[in-house]
Write a structure and sequence with these properties.
Two copies of one chain form a homodimer. By secondary structure, chain A is α+β, with helices and mostly antiparallel strands. Chain A contains four helices and 16 strands. Chain A has two domains: 78 residues, no CATH class; 201 residues, Cyclophilin.
Chain lengths: 303, 303
Amino acid sequence: MRPLLLSCLLLALAPAASAAEAARPYRSPQEILDASPAAHWRSPDPDNLLYMELGGGRVIIELAPAFAPAHVANIRTLAREGFWDGTSIYRVQDNFVAQFGDVDGEDPDKARPLGSALRKLPAEFQRDAAGLDFQPLPDPDGWAPQTGFAEGFHAGRDPAAGKAWMAHCYGVVGAARNAEDDSSIGAELYVIIGQSPRQLDRNITQVGRVLRGMELLSALPRGPEPMGFYDNPALRTPIRAIRMASQVAEAERTPLQVLRTDSQTFRDVVEARRNRVDGFYKRPAGHIDLCNISVPVRTPPLD
Amino acid sequence: MRPLLLSCLLLALAPAASAAEAARPYRSPQEILDASPAAHWRSPDPDNLLYMELGGGRVIIELAPAFAPAHVANIRTLAREGFWDGTSIYRVQDNFVAQFGDVDGEDPDKARPLGSALRKLPAEFQRDAAGLDFQPLPDPDGWAPQTGFAEGFHAGRDPAAGKAWMAHCYGVVGAARNAEDDSSIGAELYVIIGQSPRQLDRNITQVGRVLRGMELLSALPRGPEPMGFYDNPALRTPIRAIRMASQVAEAERTPLQVLRTDSQTFRDVVEARRNRVDGFYKRPAGHIDLCNISVPVRTPPLD
């Protein structure tokens, strides 16, 4: 045994702090997950899952058609037509993003054909809050009037403006653009690999979130050029293929389930993280930020 | 040219939003830094700098004796006596920490000798706010009554309790401990490599912050075992040596300067990041979180 950060290991001993919870012994997030009913988990639609195949393994991205329907439709087209096969991760900037796609995308002589994908899309920075089942978090957040989850994604909401949007948290996938709002088409994508750059919220179209394989992106060597680009092509990470899960034979799909953010299990996990009561934490925070919450993903149990 | 996140590249065109700033054209953080007077930069004391020598290069950590005097004193002793030479980075957990030191530290048969370092230290989770020049940020933060900077470090402060502490932001270095508050001695250290785990604030003694070389820690392969440990010793990253800069011949030191957090230049950079007014940002956030601010570090100019 060596000195650890024991936060994940210690069993809960003391009762929770709040009066409402006082009668119930504290359960760790893992204990809550272990006791969760099957109905609190969902299996993402294979038509919303992107499989990015790297030499080191598979990155699985869940797309968010509820937030960026035009971009998601274009991404589905690009994946189905093999647009990204043989492209690369060409930018990794420390504490910021890993970005991938066609590094020559803006060079008319060298750009890959976009096939039947659209060349122009509307900006989808936010959407109407109406019609969205938004599950707010208890704590205030200086970045947005409200934060919470919707459709399983980290989100912000402005009740006065009647708008909602995806939040730039760790693992979120956005559509890189140039200066114009509507200059993204979903061909060049980035994944957040550091402290959440929430100043980008409502400034870029976000299209989804990594469910599995973050360590294949976050541990890549940082690009030596400004903003993390690799001018030397040999340093880029090759992308063997990106496919919709629905294109992949069932036997080759990765079985996984995501905890429903509208479930009591999820609310309990968030609360157990807001106020950690165990042998390690001496001072429970009584607070959690949106981007400190990761939505649990699991391999479906066998029974 | 390929689609970029242009945030760092575009020149400022529009005037800043607030009335007080209306007369002055917006300047990007880089423009502000380029115009900064020499007096706004400081050269850290070589007796507060740790050089960690890895195969890939040097990681430079600034220690924080104002927050953790006993731990910093012990770390100086350990470095001067070569305690870490030949140890390893034995844990890298995605979106959390890279941890290093003596992996056998708790095995009495295999632990390295601690030399003249102390075997027991007080917990230094927080300190009296009195006597600390605390520079508060303008925005509220749900994690602490106040956040800001002190002695160049990201910090929280509770005026009612009269206490201040270092905040767990990207690059901050903490002293791993077991369940007991006072079970850390500074021999096992961790560096935050992901979303700021602010729930650890006031729960662990923090000892400093990485000034240079974060990419040598953040891009390491994640440990396959739970909590990011590498049980296979071959996967650990060897540490050639850790030395105080003051032990290293002047010719082999890394020249660097850190922007003073009590300078007008720093305040201007923070404000320029709170409200980005350039061709890329369509909606300035009007907000910044403590851990979204990195304190600029530079190689001293030649003139």
